């Protein structure tokens, strides 16, 4: 056994130079204490010179500070006896610097000697003492700060410190100081053309960690700086985060450059943010066209031709059934797979895969009507509505192929055509308003099937517009509706149209109908959940303004009360990453529900057995339903904040193991929502485990979650996993239906689209996309009552979230322009020194380019000026 030797502490050997320095410092201290005034001044100057030359860089404690430590108390006592004058101030400077080191110890720090003696000193060239001295002063200023009036004496020093920081690459340190003492209003005078970018980027990142009022102040300051240096696109992003109409208008007014205006319009168009442009000839027409996304279809088809993916795909090309095990048992089973449910799944898959391409192998061919009739009853509605997906965004070219189905004698086909008309117009603004013209006639139809198709179609066509004329058309239907189904769909449509604008007349109508249904069987209907979500969507992104509807819901019985109140919080704070709201929602999830057992005693046994038998009838009255919605709400709120999303994923693991059955159903959906169109291996593995759960509903939701996670990515690993699941769940029609849906979502737009609500380098959360994602997720809390029942058409709400995941570069003439770009994983450069690389793992491509989740692009050369904040989405370039 080897002998264990103890390491001896390293003893610093003093050199002759060190001994000489010690004796010199001792002599200088003695001269400072001397009664001869002529000796004191030169001694102090010499001492200051020795300290200054040793403290410019403090990688270790400078020797002069170390050797002067024993004389610290002596110098403090000497200071009291020196008469007022330059010598006294110079000595105060020396004591202030000595307090920085180990000289004063804890007492010096408690009494803030560094700051106290600095204020008593010369207060000139304080930066000459070095960065560490400035940092100590900042710390003590923050510790002693009360308010501006009480600390007037500190203001000159603070200004000196800020001047030093901004001229010595310590701008972020300066920002921290002003934020700590609530004096950010001083910052603009120190922001220069060289420092604004770094400072604004840091300040913007700080808004996640402060309260709402403070965040608002910081963002307004940042916008002012961007406007000062005419960086309009970055200013616009902050204005959109603030949801400030006046600020957005001012940015458009202030900008005079045509290419920059086009870029601003593309950002607003992607966010579906309405901007009023004053009519000024051709430019304003072009801007209105961009804001209305009228270029989206033509640009997407150009993009598809560049990638050479125009050939239509059939559902079989997606399923790749020839790769599944070819045993006699499976071959016999596959021959009999032409069931209505599987044909319905194929209709959805066909719509998702060929979305936006305008052609397919099922509906745009001569056998199109035959395919629709291979679906049964309500299946025909969704099969016909998939035509809208095929002609997505193409308002001019898509109406004609759909129009012929409006003359069908089959009610479901006609209703599907009405829904298809709404889908085609989704996210696109057309001057002719074809959706309103064609659908308004059917809104008040006595046929409920037509009403559903027309109302949901209008909701999708005018999502986020808050148009009064459209809401006035739907509002009377809410008030007069006798059917819970019509109330639920109309409420959703109103919520989609209003989206965050909180139109009180519509909300009041829906709330009064919900309250009317209190203590009745109607409140238990699945569509009442959708009505509640409709109210919540009206408050999307409204944060604190939900108090009134939240209080109004107190009259409702559980679990509906908790459910709708949680939905309100979910929508109001969606994508904010608000930690306090997440904690509040988790508290709801953790609460033990006791009333469920008590209420169950009052129920007759006959009624209970009836519920077990008929799952498609009345919703099982589960008192944990509110908790299930809270789980989804946690995911929705943490979306957009990476650290928060990662943390809640761990929490979902515990809920999935120990939660109530209905709460467990929501866990796979919540996990999927935190990672939409971003197939991380860890998330895929978790959802794959859930997809084999003993609870059929949990398995169904996990399989659908896999489709959400892989949406539009063509992820090979996920595709192989879904093929294996198709074999595993062959005998289970519900799970197999979900597998097919997920396969369709995985190949969304042949792998060119995304469902992620995050855009513009993940800085903005699109509220329209978020709303479209929440509808199927809330419906799937009890999958058999809606999506796996007769309301599968609710899946078409995903159309609001569908966007190409591209980088498309255009010239000033708005024509495609091919440039060479580097693409790689985005790197966070906030607060990093120098000019760090913004991407890692670089690949060089020529635009247009497909961008995966978390990727960023940058130009290879400086040949073009970029007007967008980052190369993402549609970017306008101008040659130098």
TrEMBL record:
GO MF: enzyme regulator activity
Keyword hit for Chloroplast: no
A GO-annotated cellular component: proteasome regulatory particle, base subcomplex
UniProt domain RPN1 N-terminal: residue ranges: 25-324
Keywords: Proteasome, Repeat
Pfam families hit by this protein: PC_rep, RPN1_C, RPN1_RPN2_N
Domain of life, per lineage: Eukaryota
Cross-referenced InterPro entries: 26S_Psome_Rpn1, ARM-like, ARM-type_fold, Proteasome/cyclosome_rpt, RPN1_C, RPN1_N
Domain 26S proteasome non-ATPase regulatory subunit RPN1 C-terminal, first and last residues per copy: 830-879
Assembly behavior: Component of the 19S proteasome regulatory particle complex. The 26S proteasome consists of a 20S core particle (CP) and two 19S regulatory subunits (RP). The regulatory particle is made of a lid composed of 9 subunits, a base containing 6 ATPases and few additional components including PSMD2. Interacts with RPGRIP1L. Interacts with CRY1 in a KDM8-dependent manner.
PANTHER family: 26S PROTEASOME NON-ATPASE REGULATORY SUBUNIT (PTHR10943), 26S PROTEASOME NON-ATPASE REGULATORY SUBUNIT 2 (PTHR10943:SF1)
Family from the record: Belongs to the proteasome subunit S2 family.
Biological function: Binds to the intracellular domain of tumor necrosis factor type 1 receptor. The binding domain of TRAP1 and TRAP2 resides outside the death domain of TNFR1. Component of the 26S proteasome, a multiprotein complex involved in the ATP-dependent degradation of ubiquitinated proteins. This complex plays a key role in the maintenance of protein homeostasis by removing misfolded or damaged proteins, which could impair cellular functions, and by removing proteins whose functions are no longer required. Therefore, the proteasome participates in numerous cellular processes, including cell cycle progression, apoptosis, or DNA damage repair.
Record-given protein name: 26S proteasome non-ATPase regulatory subunit 2
Taxonomic lineage of the native organism: Eukaryota, Metazoa, Ecdysozoa, Arthropoda, Hexapoda
